[in-house]
Amino acid sequence: MANNHTQSSSVLELTLDQFDQANKIIDRVMEEIEKEDGCVQCDVNFDGSNAWFSGEENCNVDHVEQFARALIEELELDEPFYCSWAYTCDKLRVDEFGGGAMVVQRGKDTFWVDAMSHVRNHVERDG
What we know:
Elements: E1 4-12, H1 19-37, E2 43-47, E3 50-55, H2 61-74, E4 81-89, E5 98-104, E6 111-114, H3 115-126
Antiparallel strand pairs: 1-3, 1-4, 2-3, 4-5, 5-6
Helix pairs in contact: 1-2
């Protein structure tokens, strides 16, 4: 049996004067995710005033996006937040590896990219 993992680590830069409000936003979103999904599947920590999102085994990047979206919109942050992740497997199984990325920007829909889908779309489009 093989174990699949989603690994990620990204930082949303904040200022010290945003720390208290950011902490409240994180707590609220954490409660919302726990109510909806049962548990939060990403680690959320503060590195100084910055919000650090990570996960070594089962990082749910949808949860990362929810935290980042709330912080960006409510704190009115204009800098984009970038997050990438890797799909890994503890056995060398065909097509069990990959990854993706997203960018969250204030007032815009989140843009998502999956590596394998991107490559397949390129071949289908351009031959």
